[in-house]
Amino acid sequence: MRVFLTGATGFIGSRVLRELLDAGHEVIGLTRSASGAKVLADAGASAHFGTLEDPAGLAKGAENADAVIHTAFDHDFSNFVANCEKDRRVIAALGSILKESDRPLLITSGVGIGDPGNGEPAREDVFDAHHFNPRIASELAGQEQLAAGVNLGVVRLPQVHDTVRQGMISPYIDMAREKGVVAYVDRGANRWAAGHVEDVAKLYVLALDRAEPGARYHAVAEEGIAVRDIAETVAIGLGLPAVSLSKEEAEGHFGWFAMFATADIKASSALTRQKLSWLPTGPSLLGDLRDRDYSATQV
What are the DSSP calls for the chain, one per residue? Predict the structure, then answer.
């Protein structure tokens, strides 16, 4: 297939690009720069120039594609709500090109939106339309496109990691470095699901091949790692103390990150594994955090 891939030079998308090419697909990668176009050409893909701020121009990349995988996202989490609304507009623009066809559109969301609300791990067959995570905008946009006749599926992400980046933990590390302590809330018993980036990339391609309208997949290798264990591992890497804060103290300490610091984001991938025969084999989150170079500048 000819696949239009947004985020093709990004952390996850660059791995998806390689998986697609290795599987024999032709890839049109979204980029905003000449340097990005060269990276794509060197990999064996063609480039479509566009930005998330111009959904209509971005959607033109989908016009001659057999399928679209949307991994691009503005990861300025201090402006998270606005960036989620921007993603909603992009999904609507992509869907307008693909509606009433069999051409699949895979979008990206977060595993917490599958939270059943009873303390159990999030599941693929649950959709909490009122979830606190602003990323719900992406799935609501996806629901609208599905209703309009788009063959749309969702890949929900946990903390996606390697030894360089670790999802929301990367800004958490930057914050800890700035504050001089690695903080967690109360006992730090809340848990975050995780998946290695190489396993996540493979999942996107498996989901594309299945092309099931309305399907939701969880790219989860580890159902949940206690935030205290994450904090203590990061503390060793940074050479800083790990400290417990009360919920009242957390808001002042974490600012915009407080809603994530206190969130319990554990998730199952049982249905995903069953449907796609997906078997994650990558390193663990704590293993990658132990092997991380804490002296290096975050990319």
Answer: -EEEEETTTSTTHHHHHHHHHHTT-EEEEEESSHHHHHHHHHHT-EEEE--TT-HHHHHGGGTT-SEEEE------GGGHHHHHHHHHHHHHHHHHHHTTSS-EEEEEEEGGGG--SSSSPB-TT---TT-SSTTHHHHHHHHHHHHTT-EEEEEEE-EEE-SS-BTTHHHHHHHHHHHTSEEEETT---EEEEEEHHHHHHHHHHHHHH--TT-EEE--SEEEEEHHHHHHHHHHHHT--EEEE-HHHHHHHHGGGHHHHT--B-B--HHHHHHH-----SPPHHHHHHH--TTSPP-
